[in-house]
Design brief:
Elements (H helix, E strand, L loop, with lengths): L2 E7 L4 H11 L6 E8 L2 E8 L2 H8 L8 E7 L14 E3 L2 E9 L2 H8 L10 H12 L4 H11 L2 E9 L6 E5 L5 E5 L2 E5 L11 E4 L4 E6 L2 E6 L10 E2 L15 H7 L1 H9 L3 E2 L2 E2 L9 H4 L3 E6 L1 H18 L3 E5 H4 L10 E7 L5 H12 L3 E6 L5 H5 L2 E4 L12 H20 L5 H12 L1 H9 L2 H11 L4 E6 L2 H17 L2 E6 L16 E6 L5 H12 L4 E6 L12 E4 L9 H18 L18
Parallel strand pairs: 17-18, 17-19, 19-20, 20-21, 22-23, 22-24, 24-25, 25-26
Antiparallel strand pairs: 1-4, 1-10, 2-3, 2-4, 5-6, 6-7, 7-8, 8-12, 9-10, 9-11, 11-14, 12-13, 15-16
Helix pairs in contact: 1-2, 3-4, 4-5, 7-13, 7-15, 9-13, 9-17, 13-14, 15-19, 16-19, 17-19
The structure holds 2-deoxy-2-amino glucitol-6-phosphate.
The site of 2-deoxy-2-amino glucitol-6-phosphate has 15 residues, from helix 9.
C-alpha cells in the first residue's frame, strides 16, 4: 500500500532516496516525504502529490546527510494532507510506516499521547509511542513499542541522537534489504534495491534491523543475531524502467509473450508439464478430490479461467473464492482439498490470511506468485513462481496472463497425474500452451485497430463485456481493467443473462464488447448480440470469423487467429487489455498510477 525506503552510506542520501521513491511510487502515490539525519539533527520534507512534487520541494535544499528514510503514501487513516504524509516525527524519533495499526486510538488514550500528535494517522501514534519509550536504548524502545501494537507494520526508524543509523522492524507488511559498497538499503520491495545489488534478503518478521554504512545487523527480540537467507533477483534494472514506452502498462502488455515463455518453458520436460524443479509433489494432485482457488482482483480472475479449464477438461470441482470473503465464511475445505492461491505481489494481506486459514483446515496449499521470497510464497506448502519480471503498472497485465498460463500447466500436470488425460493428449495440450506467446504476438499486430475503439468508449459512462463460458471469464478481467485505469464504469455479464434485467441499461451507443470465440455457444452469443444491437448498442465483436457477412451484427469486428476454444484466452486477454489501455490514454490519464489505487494491497 505504501512505498518505504531507507539508505545509509558514504554519499548524500537525498537523491538516492527520492530516486528509490520514484521506483516505489507504484505502491502508493497520494503523498511523499523524506527525513534526513546527520550530526545536525533530523530534517523532514513532505507534501501531498507524487514524488515529483517532493523532488521540487527539496530541489534547493543543500541537505548532504548520508542517512535517511523516504515514503510514498496510499492513504488509509487520515486524508491526503501534508500533515498526514510520512515521515512522522515526534521528539527524538522520526519514522515511516507501511500497514495499519488497529489499536492506535487505544494507544493514544492508554499512553496519553494526544498532545504529541498533529496528524490524523495511526503511524504518528507509533512515533509518539516510540518517543515516549525512548531513553537512549533504541532496541528496548522498539521492543516495548512493537509489543503494544496490534495490526500490520513495516517500520523504518531514526533516532536523532544516533546519526548514520536506521532501525527497522516488520510483521506482515513487506520489507527487503541489502548491503553493498554504496551502503545499506532497505525498501518495500526489490525494485528499489536492484541498482545497488542483485542480492538481498527478506526482513524476517519481528526482528530488529540496525542499518549503518558498514552493514546490517539483524537480531531477534531476544537480542540474538541471525543471518537471513540471501536471495538473488533474476532480472535487471532495465526491467523496472519504461524502456521507451509511454507507460509501464503498454511495455508490460508487450512483454507478455516472453513472460509466458519464461514461465512455461522451464516446466516442460519431454513435451510434458514437469514441476520437479519447483519441488511440487505430485501427491498434492493425486490426493485431492476438489480444488479451492483463492485470490483478489485480477489474480482471482486468472483463477476463474483455471476453474473453467479444470472443470471442463478434468471434471474436478473447483471453487473460486474472493480472499476477503473466504476468510470469514468458515469455508468447506479439508485435507482432500487442494487450495491454489494466486498473487502477483505475494503480499496481498487478504490472500495471505486466506492461505493461512486453508492450511489450518488441513488443505495442502500451492501458490502461484510472481515475487520470489514474498510472504505468500514463504507461507505456502508449494510455490509455482511465475517469471513475468517486475510488474510496475498498478493494472496487472503480464502477471494475469502468466497466472493463466500457470493454471494451464497445473491443469495438464494434474490431468496426467490423476490419469484423466492421456500422454498424447497432454502433449497436444502442451504444444498449444507453448504456442500461446505466438498467439499474443499475432494479436498485438492489431493494436492500432483496437486503438480506434477507445474513442467510442472514452465518452461512455457504462460499458458492458459479454460472453459465454471461457469468454465470460475473460469479460470479468476486461471490465476490471477498463474501470481501474479509465474510470469508465464497466460490467461483465454472462451473455445469456443480460436479458434477465440488465439489458434495460442498453441504450443508443452504449458500448458492448462481445466475445464470441467459443464455437459451441457461438450462435447463442450472436443472438445475444442482436438483442443489444436492436436497442442501439455500439457493438464490438471479438471472434475467429474470417469476416462478418451481416453488418447488422456489430459496429466493429476484431478477428483473432483460428484457435482451439481453450486457448482463445491468450488472444482475448491482450485485446481487452489494449482496449482499456487506449481508453485511459485517450482520456489523458496516468495509466500506470490510477487514482485511489496502489499496486500491492497490504492492508485489509
Ligand atoms: C489488478 O489490475 C489490480 N491491480 C488488483 O486487482 C490486483 O490484481 C489485486 O490487488 C491482487 O494483487 P496480487 O496479485 O498482488 O495479490
Amino acid at each position: 500500500m505504501c512505498g518505504i525506503i531507507g539508505f545509509t552510506g558514504d554519499q548524500p542520501a537525498k537523491d538516492i532516496i527520492i530516486g528509490g521513491l520514484e521506483r516505489l511510487e507504484y505502491r502508493g502515490y497520494d503523498s511523499a516525504g523524506i527525513a534526513l539525519l546527520d550530526e545536525k539533527g533530523i530534517t523532514v520534507r513532505k507534501r501531498t502529490g507524487k514524488v515529483e512534487e517532493l523532488r521540487k520541494l527539496c530541489m534547493n535544499d543543500t541537505l548532504d546527510a548520508c542517512c535517511g528514510i523516504g515514503h510514498t503514501r496510499w492513504a488509509t487513516h487520515g486524508g491526503v494532507t501534508d500533515a498526514n504524509a510520512h515521515p512522522h516525527r515526534c521528539g527524538q524519533v522520526v519514522l515511516i510506516h507501511n500497514g495499519i495499526i488497529e489499536n492506535y486510538r487505544q494507544l493514544v488514550t492508554e499512553y496519553g499521547l494526544a498532545d504529541k500528535l498533529v496528524s490524523e494517522t495511526d503511524s504518528e501514534v507509533v512515533a509518539a509511542l516510540l518517543d515516549t519509550f525512548y531513553e537512549g536504548d533504541p532496541e528496548a524502545a522498539i521492543k516495548k513499542t512493537v509489543k503494544a501494537l496490534s495490526g500490520a507494520f513495516a517500520l523504518c526508524i531514526m533516532f536523532e541522537d544516533i546519526p548514520g543509523t536506521i532501525y527497522a522492524i516488520r510483521n506482515v507488511s513487506p520489507m527487503v534489504a541489502t548491503h553493498s559498497e554504496s551502503g545499506s538499503v532497505i525498501a518495500s520491495d526489490v525494485t528499489a534495491l536492484i541498482e545497488y545489488s542483485n542480492d538481498y534478503f527478506v526482513v524476517p518478521e519481528y526482528h530488529i534491523l540496525k542499518l549503518t554504512r558498514d552493514g546490517i545487523l539483524v537480531t531477534n527480540l531476544k537480542g540474538k543475531e541471525v543471518k537471513p537467507e540471501i536471495l538473488t533477483v533474476n532480472w535487471d534494472i532495465k526491467s523496472a524502467q519504461k524502456g521507451g514506452y509511454p507507460f509501464f502498462m503498454l511495455k508490460e502488455i508487450y512483454e507478455q509473450p516472453d513472460a509466458i515463455r519464461n514461465t512455461v518453458m522451464p516446466r516442460v520436460e519431454g513435451d510434458l508439464p514437469d514441476f520437479t524443479e519447483d519441488g511440487i509433489d505430485d501427491a498434492i494432485f493425486e490426493n485431492c478430490d476438489k480444488l479451492m482457488v483463492v485470490a483478489c482482483g485480477t489474480a482471482m480472475h486468472a483463477g476463474i479461467v483455471g476453474k473453467h479449464l479444470i472443470e471442463k477438461l478434468l471434471r474436478i470441482p473447483v471453487n473460486v473464492e474472493i480472499a476477503s470473503e473466504f476468510r470469514y465464511k468458515d469455508p468447506i475445505i479439508d485435507e482432500k482439498t487442494l487450495t491454489i492461491v494466486l498473487s502477483q505481489s505475494g503480499e496481498t494481506i487478504d490472500t495471505l490470511e486466506a492461505l493461512k486459514l486453508a492450511k489450518s483446515k488441513g488443505s495442502k496449499t500451492l501458490s502461484i506468485v510472481n515475487v520470489k521470497g514474498s510472504t505468500i510464497a514463504r507461507e505456502s506448502d508449494y510455490v509455482l513462481y511465475t517469471h513475468a519480471g517486475p510488474e510496475i503498472a498498478v493494472a496487472s497485465t503480464k502477471a494475469y496472463t502468466v497466472q493463466v498460463a500457470a493454471m494451464y500447466l497445473i491443469t495438464c500436470r494434474m490431468g496426467l497425474v490423476k490419469k484423466l488425460i492421456s500422454e498424447s493428449d497432454a502433449r497436444k495440450f502442451m504444444a498449444k500452451l507453448i504456442s500461446a506467446p505466438n498467439i499474443i504476438e499475432e494479436t498485438l499486430k492489431d493494436a492500432n485497430d483496437i486503438k480506434r475503439i477507445a474513442n467510442h468508449i472514452k465518452m461512455a459512462t457504462d460499458t458492458f463485456y459479454i460472453g459465454r463460458g471461457l469468454d465470460y471469464t475473460m469479460s470479468l478481467e476486461a471490465a476490471l481493467k477498463l474501470k481501474e485505469i479509465s474510470y469508465v464504469h464497466a460490467e461483465a455479464y454472462a451473455a445469456g443473462e443480460l436479458k434477465h434485467g440488465t439489458i434495460a441499461l442498453i441504450a443508443e451507443n452504449v458500448p458492448v464488447i462481445a466475445l464470441a470465440t467459443q464455437e459451441d455457444v457461438y450462435a447463442k452469443v450472436i443472438s445475444n448480440i442482436r438483442e443489444v444491437k436492436a436497442r442501439g448498442a455500439y457493438v464490438v465483436l471479438v471472434s475467429m470469423d474470417e469476416k462478418i457477412d451481416d453488418p447488422a451484427i456489430c459496429d466493429k469486428h476484431i478477428r483473432i487467429p483460428k484457435l482451439d476454444p481453450e486457448f482463445t484466452a491468450f488472444a482475448t486477454a491482450v485485446i481487452l487489455q489494449l482496449i482499456a489501455y487506449y481508453t485511459s490514454e485517450a482520456k489523458g490519464l496516468d495509466v500506470d498510477k490510477p487514482r485511489n489505487l496502489a499496486k500491492s494491497v497490504t492492508v485489509e
